[in-house]
Structures are given as C-alpha cells and as structure tokens.
Specification:
With 341 residues, the protein is α/β, with parallel strands linked by helices. It is 30% helix and 26% strand. The protein is built from eleven helices and 15 strands. Helix 4 packs parallel to helix 5. It is globular, with a radius of gyration of 20 Å. The mean pLDDT is 95. Bound molecules: S-adenosylmethionine.
C-alpha cells in the first residue's frame, strides 16, 4: 500500500495521478460544497481566538478547503498568521498553489508549504480524508492466531500471502473474532498522532474521515475488513488491479486514534453531520432565500450530501484533540460521542 500510494514518480499520491472531484476517482466534503469549509471556519476561528497563531492542513488535495477557510476566516475577522500545508504530492502542491492564488489572491501570501511537520508549533491542525490514505497492515485470523497478509508474486501477478506476526506487534484486538476474519490496523495513523502530540505546544488537531469506533470496526460481521480502492468513482476491493493509478484506503479506527500515545486531550468525537449542525450549517443555508431556486437548490442538495446518514453525514466522523485550549469546542457542543470510543 505504501509503494502503490507513495513510490516516487509511480505512487498514486506522488505521480500526479491523484484525481479528486467530480471528474476524478472520488470526491470529498470540501469539494461537495463550501458549506463544509465555512462551518469548519467557525470552529477554527474560536481556536485562533484563544491565541493560537497558525493553521496547518495535512494533505490539502486540490486546495479547495484552504481557499474556502481563508475566505471565511477573513469575513469572520479571524485570519491565521500563517496557513501551512503539509502535502506529499508535488503535483497536488502545484494545484493548491494555483487554486489558492485564483480564489483567495489577497490571502495567498499567508500560505506556505511544509516538507515535514514543524518541530514545535501553536496551531490548529486539520485534515480531511488523509488518515484513510495512510498505509495499513492487513491481518487474517487462522487457527486462533493472527497472520499478516502481505504481497507476493504468483504467475507474474501480485497476490496475497500470509506470514506469522509476533503478537507483540499487534494491538489488542477482540479475542472472540472467528477464523477466516480479515481486518486492518494502522500503526501509521497512531504514529502520526504521536508526532503531532509531541510537536503541538498549544492548539488542536481536528481530523475528518470515514470510520468507526473499535467496537464497530472489529465487528464480527465486518469480516473482510475495510480496504477499498477507488478508480473513476467506482469502489472495489482489489488493490492489485491498477497499482499507482487507483486510490487505496481503509476506514479509520477512531478508538485507536484516541488510545494512541500522543499525550493530547480528547476534545470531542462525533459524526460529520452533527459537527456541521453544531457549527451552524442550517443558518448558512438559511442565508439564501428558498425562493431563489437557482442558488438555493444546489446548496440544499450539497447540504443533503454532507448531512444525510445515507451519504456522508454518518459514515464520516470528526475527532478533535488539543493541548492548552479551553473546551468545549462548538463542533461537539451537542451529540459528542467521545464516551463511545
Ligand atoms: C483523499 S485526498 C484528500 C484531499 C483533501 N483533504 C480533500 O478533502 O479534498 C488525500 C490527500 O492527502 C495527501 N496525503 C496522503 N498521504 C499524506 C501524508 N502522509 N502526508 C501529507 N499528505 C498526505 C494526498 O496527497 C492528498 O492531498
């Protein structure tokens, strides 16, 4: 998964093939509507108002969220000193520069691109659909023990192969899962959060992604795990089909993020829909008169995509961690599910 996504010049995220948006392989909440970024701006503004200087966005895609957030924070008179983007893809970095200079020309000077996380920072760190792109390890239960699924060559084709995995390399997984059960773990996600925890002196980390708490993630019926590939808006489960040309993802185990060794306070965990409602999406929608159908209808349809439990509203979650900031956060003021992690 690491090679297929990140091999220099060949990986999906490093070869200029990553296609986000209506004409690409998949779309994301900031691409669905500016309502997403405008709501998040209200949460970010509260945190900047607590004396946090910068925003750091991980994996900014086409740069749409950055442009929307900057524009909205300007309207809220709460601009960050710097908007810093950590992006692995040189191609996407160039697209971000272009889009931000077109959509937020006055604010582009505040944006800078990082090669690595800063050693120490006071920031609001945000990401949308980045944790699911971090390489996972795939496991299979056989004769009551966990084997790791790796990749081999068989008749010149890529194929799965199992190998023994030391129990010490595995997190606590439910003991009662049956033989033939397959699933994933994400040491890379926990490690990223650990790094953020080590470097963040003051501020918050707000992560949006699709996934579940451990109890649902490792449910006996989810016996084929969550590894998914996306190619031209078609989702399928075969990561060997077009290595480097298709996205490969796995759902996020939010309990594992909460439990990771990061030393940050857990500030909230809820669904995307609840977060957006808490941040005022219905008020933003109401700013456009329903009688103005040409503007209202597409906005209402986008809100439906972001909020509906049948679309992005429930599968997508948001989790927030912090250090030296005052809770509660507005995005979790109602319907916080942190106790379920
Ligand atoms: C699924 S896209 C989401 C893009 C954007 N956040 C959005 O919502 O439209 C994943 C993004 O994360 C970037 N990315 C993937 N792995 C990364 C990593 N380890 N560090 C930083 N960025 C990463 C990709 O290049 C891409 O910009």
């Amino acid at each position: 998964m690491h090679l297929a996504l990140y091999a220099p010049g060949l990986g999906y995220y490093s070869a200029g093939s990553c296609k986000i948006g209506a004409g690409g392989d998949f779309t994301t909440a900031p691409e669905v509507s500016p309502l997403f970024g405008r709501c998040l701006a209200r949460q970010v503004a509260d945190l900047l108002n607590q004396g946090v200087d910068d925003i750091i966005e991980l994996g900014a895609g086409r740069g749409t969220l950055a442009a929307t957030l900057l524009g909205e924070l300007e309207s809220l008179q709460q601009l960050p000193a710097r908007y810093r983007i950590l992006e692995v893809s040189a191609d996407l970095r160039a697209r971000q520069q272009q889009l931000i200079s077109e959509r937020a020309p006055r604010l582009a000077a505040r944006v800078e691109w990082l090669q690595t996380l800063p050693e120490s920072c006071a920031a609001v760190v945000i990401s949308n659909e980045v944790i699911d792109a971090l390489p996972v390890r795939r496991l299979r239960r056989e004769q009551g023990r966990w084997l790791e699924l790796g990749v081999t060559l068989s008749d010149d084709r890529l194929a799965w192969a199992t190998r023994a995995t030391p129990a010490t390399a595995l997190p606590d997984l439910p003991a009662d899962l049956p033989d033939d059960y397959e699933t994933e773990i994400s040491p890379a996600a926990s490690a990223l959060l650990g790094e953020l925890g080590r470097r963040l002196q003051r501020g918050a980390v707000i992560l949006f992604d699709y996934g579940f708490p451990a109890r649902e993630y490792y449910h006996p019926q989810r016996n084929r795990g969550t590894l998914m590939c996306h190619y031209r808006h078609t989702a399928h489960g075969d990561p060997f089909l077009w290595p480097g040309l298709q996205d490969i993802t796995a759902h996020v185990d939010f309990s594992a993020l909460a439990r990771a060794d990061h030393g940050l306070d857990l500030l909230g965990y809820t669904s995307q829909a609840q977060f957006l409602i808490n941040c005022g999406i219905t008020g933003l929608l109401a700013e456009v008169p329903a009688a103005d159908a040409a503007r209202y209808a597409p906005l209402a349809a986008a809100a439906q995509t972001l909020l509906s439990p049948a679309e992005m509203g429930e599968l997508f979650k948001v989790i927030a961690f912090g250090r030296a900031v005052l809770p509660p956060l507005r995005g979790f003021i109602s319907g916080d599910r942190a106790h379920r992690l």
